[in-house]
Amino acid sequence: MAFTLSKDTLRNQISSILNCVVVLSAVASISFVSAALELNEQATGLSSQEQIDVVLNGKFTQGALLRGQAPVGAKVTLNGEPVQTNKDGKFVVGFEREAQLQQTLAVELDNGKKWQRDITLEKREYNIQRIDGLEQKMVTPPAEVTARIKQDNINVANARSGNTDLDALFTRFEWPAKGAITGVYGSQRILNGVPKWPHYGLDIANETGTPVYAPVDGVVTMADDLYYSGNTLILDHGMRVFSTFLHMDTITVEVGDTVKQGEQIGTIGSTGRSTGPHLDWRINLGNIRLDPHTIMSGSPEQ
């Protein structure tokens, strides 16, 4: 993006947002913003002719997914570890539920010039949810289903193992269903008095049969009935980012299908370990479980 602004004007415009993130653009690709130039100069001390354009979109908080763009061919690292970039310089980073609050994102060009941003994540407090009245076999599964659960876990891992160059995830995500949010990411569930793993999804409750839509373009990598999560669908959005939809009543797409944003992929249900009809929507960056709410605005009730 080409524009001309004085340094003083730039500083005034971004002084109130230096510790915030850039609001996600509604257009299909990430756009550079004025904040990028000022952040570059502060981080590196480079002159205006040497500045490195880097954009970041997302929330600086535990559980967040950040989408970014650096110059084509640049090397991107997070805390010294390499971050995948695509042919356009786009990249994705994620921060797990209990991620360290201090993070360092760096970009280095072929000529040795560097950009660095020290990020301080917001520490989150998570809810504790108690759910009683479940069948005991769904809290502590009987021995005869142990093999099935193990195979389910292997199948899910395989469905999330891809690393394609799709970049639909750089568009604005839409809510996959209408309803009320009844469960949030990071909360720990105590089932029939037994503490379990934290909940890594966002629950949207509505009547059985309520349509579920693709929040953004993707390729179906799983459409199966699993012991815990019932009818489960996984979409590959590219660059190791996956959406998973649990407890569905019906799934209307098949493995290998390419779906477009807004295309119906099934309906809300209460299959698997569930106490009522709802959609449990999850986001993964590889093995990192992230909070779908960090890439959304508004409410699914709208």
Automatic annotation (TrEMBL):
Pfam families, A to Z: Peptidase_M23 (PF01551)
Annotated GO MF terms: metalloendopeptidase activity
Gene3D superfamilies (alphabetical): Glucose Permease (Domain IIA)
Domain (M23ase beta-sheet core): residue spans on this chain: 198-292
Coiled-coil regions listed in the entry: none
InterPro entries the UniProt entry points to: Cell_wall_metabolism_enzyme (IPR050570), Dup_hybrid_motif (IPR011055), M23ase_b-sheet_dom (IPR016047)
PANTHER family, per database record: M23 FAMILY METALLOPEPTIDASE, PEPTIDASE-RELATED
Entry protein name: M23 family metallopeptidase
Organism in which the protein naturally occurs: Alteromonas portus
